[in-house]
């Protein structure tokens, strides 16, 4: 099982390197899912001394008042016997500390960098790894000591701030609470027991440690507490005897201190029967063994979180898009792929896969017919205009049967008014909609502008061609009249018409009104025909061409661009690049963790 806790320490170190831990992470993190031990106690409860005894080194800042002002995440790594002990801080990569007095100074300096040289606190943790043959594999989080009053230089909220910080760690279901209480104070007033009872009322996650047993008043002892009679927890209480201040001043080393601690429990009659489970050495071994057991029980939950987070990270990376290729060929390929995505989305809008193409159909089925219907021919077909054009067309030779040239001029002037609705029907534009829906274009603002502009320019060229073709349809109707429609006019003689009227009779209102009615019928027939032919022309000249060659001109220009110009098109937002890089590293961490956790799980 040793490899399991070693693996967790390894994953935690990787999490620390990526900042994937604790309060600053936006998502539930792998760090949160890994069991760890939170060390809780009141000020001057002996908390720091217990940690130093477990490690076997003097490395924590000392002093009066609040000394621990930031959480200290302490990872212990057991290395081969005979190896030299050293410590590492992730915020000082590639630097090893072999002098533990320097470790103490760095903890103090790093605390001051975050909080200043005041008595303020911070929730931002300090991470420290210690590698030694004299430790067990373990992760401990040393939290600021609980206090009841603010001292000079501290805000009034300090009491609640520290308590909230402690709660944020010990409320996690995977957290093991190491509750430090001094034996020379009433257990009922213990800050550690009070807060641990609130978050873990059953005592399932709490391990009680009793310090300062050797400092109790004469005639008193801590047997009832250590035997679980005064306050019962799931796990037996552990008593420790730390070095006194005099020992610390004399630089009594940890080996000697541990020997004296064993001698104390073995030689004191009240504690002799408990000596086998007392002391700092037993505490360290017990914590390591318990942590291993908890990790083993939490593996299924950790595997589930890792799998879920991998899926979330992959989705987010897909949304952000692929990183930019370094070479010109890779850049060109990336741009072409993005353009193809845009082109397909544009086609989807036209084909009805995405909304928008219905707007073009609405132009064909509603707007164009409505515009044709709204056309007014009052001016062209007024009695005055008909008489004027008919007379002008006759010239010196009055028409004999029907005023053909007058008809042509009246029809041409009427049909010319159709050009407006015919032009307006090709103005539908879905380019901007397609640009906004192409996720890859959001990644590259420069390319988004270029593609949008190129598509609009291309569509403008197609629109111009479409307008020309559409107007040509109108001009065709003006240029050649449908003969069959007018062949019925001479038949009016057979129906009682009298072609022998005088020349002056032919310009009376009744006659001119008949001409206007005939022309209006013809124009309406032409409008009905154009209502069907104009959409066909637009689809052929514009919609069909847009689907086939919207970005052809841009692709031609793209092939002529040098690497610098291609790079400018793929000039990505630095914030997106930074986020993608961070997510990629985090994904790599989670995939590696998944593989290693699965391997350990299957080997059990």
Descriptive notes:
This protein is an alpha/beta fold and 604 residues long. The protein is 56% helix and 8% strand. It contains 23 helices and nine strands. It has helices spanning 2-18, 30-33, 47-55, 100-115, 158-170, 191-199, 223-226, 245-249, 254-267, 280-320, 328-351, 357-373, 383-394, 404-415, 419-424, 431-437, 439-443, 445-479, 483-486, 509-549, 552-558, 563-569, 574-603, and strands spanning 36-41, 72-78, 86-88, 96-97, 126-132, 138-142, 175-182, 206-211, 238-239. The chain has a nine-stranded mixed beta sheet with strand order 4-3-5-2-6-1-7-8-9, sandwiched between helices. A hairpin with a 7-residue loop joins strand 3 (86-88) and strand 4 (96-97). The radius of gyration is 45 Å and the shape is rod-shaped. The termini are close together. Residues 22-28, 492-497 and 499-504 have low confidence and may be disordered.
List the helices and strands and how they pair.
Blueprint: H1 2-18, H2 30-33, E1 36-41, H3 47-55, E2 72-78, E3 86-88, E4 96-97, H4 100-115, E5 126-132, E6 138-142, H5 158-170, E7 175-182, H6 191-199, E8 206-211, H7 223-226, E9 238-239, H8 245-249, H9 254-267, H10 280-320, H11 328-351, H12 357-373, H13 383-394, H14 404-415, H15 419-424, H16 431-437, H17 439-443, H18 445-479, H19 483-486, H20 509-549, H21 552-558, H22 563-569, H23 574-603
Parallel strand pairs: 1-6, 1-7, 2-5, 7-8, 8-9
Antiparallel strand pairs: 2-6, 3-4, 3-5
Helix pairs in contact: 1-10, 1-23, 3-10, 10-23, 11-16, 11-22, 12-20, 13-14, 14-18, 14-20, 18-20
């Amino acid at each position: 099982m040793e490899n399991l806790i070693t693996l967790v320490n390894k994953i935690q170190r990787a999490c620390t390197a990526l900042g994937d831990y604790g309060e600053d992470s936006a998502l539930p993190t792998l760090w949160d899912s890994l069991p760890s031990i939170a060390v809780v106690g009141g000020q001057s409860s002996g908390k720091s001394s217990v940690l130093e005894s477990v490690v076997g080194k003097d490395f924590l800042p000392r002093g009066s008042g609040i000394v621990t002002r930031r959480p200290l995440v302490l990872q212990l790594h057991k290395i081969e016997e005979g190896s030299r002990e050293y410590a590492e801080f992730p915020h000082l990569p590639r630097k090893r500390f072999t002098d533990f007095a320097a470790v103490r100074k760095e903890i103090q300096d790093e605390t001051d960098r975050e909080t200043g040289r005041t008595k303020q606190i911070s929730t931002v943790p300090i991470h420290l790894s210690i590698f030694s043959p004299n430790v067990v594999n373990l992760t401990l989080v040393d939290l600021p000591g609980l206090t009841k009053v603010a001292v000079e230089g501290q805000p009034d909220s300090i009491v609640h701030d520290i308590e909230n910080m402690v709660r944020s760690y010990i409320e996690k279901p995977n957290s093991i609470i190491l509750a430090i209480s001094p034996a020379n104070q009433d257990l009922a007033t213990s800050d550690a027991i009070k807060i641990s009872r609130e978050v873990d009322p059953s005592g399932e996650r709490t391990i009680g440690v009793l310090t300062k047993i050797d400092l109790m008043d004469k005639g008193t002892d801590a047997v009832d507490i250590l035997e679980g009679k005064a306050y019962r927890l799931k796990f037996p209480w552990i008593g420790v005897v730390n070095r006194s201040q005099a020992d610390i001043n004399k630089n009594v080393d940890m080996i000697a201190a541990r020997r004296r601690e064993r001698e104390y429990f073995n030689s004191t009659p009240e504690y002799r029967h408990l000596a086998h489970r007392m002391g700092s050495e037993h505490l360290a071994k017990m914590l390591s063994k318990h942590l291993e057991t908890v990790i083993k029980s939490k593996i299924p939950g950790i595997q589930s979180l890792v799998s879920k987070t991998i899926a979330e990270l992959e989705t987010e990376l897909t949304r952000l898009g692929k990183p930019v290729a370094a070479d010109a060929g890779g850049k060109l390929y990336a741009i072409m792929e993005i353009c193809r995505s845009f082109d397909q989305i544009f086609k989807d809008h036209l084909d009805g896969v995405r909304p928008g193409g219905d707007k073009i159909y609405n132009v064909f089925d509603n707007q164009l017919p409505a515009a044709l219907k709204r056309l007014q021919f009052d001016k062209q077909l007024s009695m005055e205009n008909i008489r004027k054009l008919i007379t002008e067309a006759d010239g010196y030779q009055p028409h004999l049967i029907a005023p053909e040239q007058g008809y042509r001029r009246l029809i041409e002037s009427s049909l010319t008014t159709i050009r407006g609705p015919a032009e307006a029907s090709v103005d539908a534009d879905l380019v901007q909609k397609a640009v906004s829906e192409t996720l890859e274009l959001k990644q590259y603002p420069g390319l988004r502008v270029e593609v949008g502009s190129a598509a609009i320019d291309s569509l403008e060229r197609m629109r111009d061609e479409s307008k020309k073709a559409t107007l040509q349809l109108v001009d065709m109707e003006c240029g050649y009249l449908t003969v069959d429609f007018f062949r019925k006019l001479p038949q009016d003689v057979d129906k009682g018409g009298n072609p022998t009227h005088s020349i002056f009779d032919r310009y009376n209102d009744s006659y001119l009104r008949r001409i206007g009615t005939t022309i209006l019928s013809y124009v309406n027939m032409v409008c009905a025909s154009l209502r069907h032919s104009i959409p066909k022309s637009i689809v052929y000249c514009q919609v069909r061409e847009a689907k086939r060659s919207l970005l052809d001109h841009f692709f031609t220009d793209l092939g002529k661009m040098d690497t610098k110009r291609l790079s400018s098109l793929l000039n990505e937002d630095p914030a997106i690049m930074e986020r993608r890089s961070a997510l990629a590293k985090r994904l790599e961490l989670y995939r590696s963790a998944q593989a290693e956790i699965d391997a350990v799980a299957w080997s059990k």
